[in-house]
Design brief:
six-stranded mixed β-sheet, 2 helices, Conserved Hypothetical Protein Mth637, Chain: A, alpha+beta, single chain, about 25% helix
Length: about 100
């Protein structure tokens, strides 16, 4: 299954795989059917979740209040929602960060 971006009432949702305790914060591409995000924070007391939201907000140039982790709060595999963003804008911003990203249909 390829990386999918789902439209929802508020904006878009997508799957992400988080790798905590990495050497730096970065979006590395795709892992299975999810966006792979490496974070420096350890997965303790929600620290990695908070950093994930903050990092994505900065990377995608949106307010952190528009990003929410809607499932997978205690695991590596998460569903992330971005309000008021469409698939086209999301993909353009992602491909500027990870040029060889090839999302599925």
């Amino acid at each position: 299954m390829a990386f999918q971006i789902r439209k929802c009432k508020e904006g878009i949702q997508f799957a992400a795989t988080i790798q905590p305790r990495s050497s730096r914060n970065e979006i590395t591409g795709l892992h299975n059917d999810a966006l792979k995000i490496r974070l420096t924070s350890p997965p303790v007391e929600g620290a990695a979740n908070r950093l994930c939201v903050k990092f994505l907000a900065k990377a995608l140039d949106v307010s952190p209040s528009r990003i929410a982790i809607v499932s997978g709060l205690s695991g590596r595999n998460k569903t992330i929602q971005i309000e008021a963003m469409d698939e086209k804008a999301f993909l353009e911003k992602l491909q500027a960060i990870v040029p060889d990203l090839k999302p599925g249909d």
